[in-house]
Design brief:
Number of helices: 1
Radius of gyration: 21 Å
Strand content: 35-45%
CATH class of the domain at 41-127: Mainly Beta
CATH topology of the domain at 41-127: Thrombin, subunit H
Largest sheet: 4 strands, antiparallel
Number of strands: 10
Order of helices and strands: HEEEEEEEEEE
Shape: globular
Length: 143
C-alpha cells in the first residue's frame, strides 16, 4: 500500500479575507433611519457614565465599548460622538467639562480634551498597572 503526497491547500488568503471582513464590520457604525431622518450611532455596550455638562443643556455618555456621545437636551438628539481607544472600564469629566478621563481594562488612564467636541484628542496617558483594570476614576471637585 502506497501513500500519495498531496500538497495542502493554502488557507492564509482565506483567513486574511475573513480578518478584513471582521475589521470592516467592526468599524461600520450602525445608524437608523426614522421617518427620513438618520439617527445614531448608539452605544453598543453598557453605559458607564452619564453626566450633565454644567450650565448647558448637554449630556455626555460613555460606554464600555468606548463610544462617547454628546447629547442635546433641548434638541433631544445627538450632537456629536467619538470612539475612545481601548476597552473602557471607567470614566469621569472634570468640573470645567473640558477633560474626559477614561480608565481601561489594561491599567491605562487616558485624558481627552473635549473642549471642542468635534475634534477631541488624547493629551495625556498614564499607565498605572499592566493587565489590571481601572475600576473607578473621579475628579476632585476643584479640578
Amino acid at each position: 500500500m502506497g501513500v500519495l503526497e498531496i500538497p495542502a491547500e493554502d488557507n492564509k488568503a482565506d483567513e486574511e479575507d475573513e480578518d478584513q471582513d471582521r475589521k470592516k464590520k467592526k468599524k461600520e457604525i450602525k445608524k437608523i433611519d426614522v421617518d427620513g431622518t438618520i439617527i445614531g450611532p448608539y452605544h453598543r455596550k453598557g453605559i458607564i457614565l452619564i453626566k450633565e455638562i454644567e450650565n448647558t443643556s448637554l449630556v455626555i455618555t460613555v460606554s464600555l465599548g468606548g463610544r462617547v456621545i454628546l447629547w442635546s437636551g433641548k434638541q433631544r438628539r445627538q450632537v456629536g460622538y467619538f470612539d475612545a481607544e481601548g476597552d473602557i472600564t471607567s470614566a469621569d469629566i472634570n468640573s470645567k467639562s473640558n477633560v474626559l478621563a477614561i480608565g481601561t481594562s489594561d491599567g491605562l488612564i487616558q485624558f481627552y480634551s473635549i473642549s471642542s467636541f468635534q475634534s477631541p484628542f488624547i493629551f495625556k496617558e498614564i499607565r498605572l498597572t499592566k493587565g489590571n483594570r481601572i475600576s473607578q476614576i473621579t475628579f476632585s471637585s476643584t479640578s
